[in-house]
């Protein structure tokens, strides 16, 4: 079972803008991080799960990690966003590990997340209360 990462979709206004940013890259998208994960060998076949609005909204398959030459590392991602069932997730700095058994399932083609139909303010309040 692969190990995954979670990260906030910083500066993305919506999952759609995150998808547009990812798809604007031809072969791979890169994020910079200060530290190489200690469990990097367990991440083969894993994904980076994106947090937006205090919930996991999608994932991008990991290609790998590469040193930038400036004492940092690139997280190399496939330039696509695979929608997942919306799952509450608190915001955090940097990235965190996500075990396979805790990862939300992918949404099928044309399948919508029930939470997407809910008004944004209501969803935010229910998330804050820990009800969704």
How many helices? The count is 2
Globally, the shape reads: globular
User: What's the structural domain tally?
Assistant: 1
Question: What is the CA-atom radius of gyration, in angstroms?
Answer: 15 Å
Q: What is the CATH level 1 assignment?
A: Mainly Beta
> In this structure, how is the largest beta sheet organized?
7 strands, mixed
Description of the structure:
The chain is an alpha+beta fold and 132 residues long. It has one domain (4-128): Archaeosine Trna-guanine Transglycosylase, Chain: A, domain 4. 14% of the residues lie in helices and 34% in strands. A hairpin with a 5-residue loop joins β4 (55-67) and β5. It holds the Pfam family DUF1489. InterPro entries: UCP032025. It comes from Sphingobium quisquiliarum P25.
SSE arrangement:
Elements (H helix, E strand, L loop, with lengths): L3 E5 L6 H9 L5 E5 L13 E6 L2 E13 L5 E5 L4 E7 L6 E4 L21 H9 L4
Parallel strand pairs: 1-3
Antiparallel strand pairs: 1-7, 2-5, 3-4, 4-5, 4-6
Protein name: Lysophospholipase
Pfam families: DUF1489
Organism: Sphingobium quisquiliarum P25
Short description:
It contains two helices and seven strands, in the order βαββββββα. It has 132 residues and is α+β, with helices and mostly antiparallel strands.
């Amino acid at each position: 079972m692969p190990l995954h990462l979670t990260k906030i979709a910083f500066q993305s206004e919506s999952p759609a803008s995150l998808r547009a940013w990812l798809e604007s890259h031809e072969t791979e998208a890169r994020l910079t991080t200060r530290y190489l994960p200690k469990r990097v060998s367990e991440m083969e076949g894993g994904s980076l799960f994106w947090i937006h609005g205090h919930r996991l909204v999608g994932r991008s398959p990991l290609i790998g990690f590469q040193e930038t030459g400036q004492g940092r590392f690139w997280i190399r991602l496939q330039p696509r966003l695979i929608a997942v069932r919306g799952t509450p997730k608190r915001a955090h700095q940097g990235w965190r590990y996500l075990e396979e058994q805790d990862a939300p399932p992918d949404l099928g083609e044309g399948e919508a997340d029930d939470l997407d139909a809910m008004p944004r303010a209501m969803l935010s309040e229910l998330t804050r209360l820990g009800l969704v």
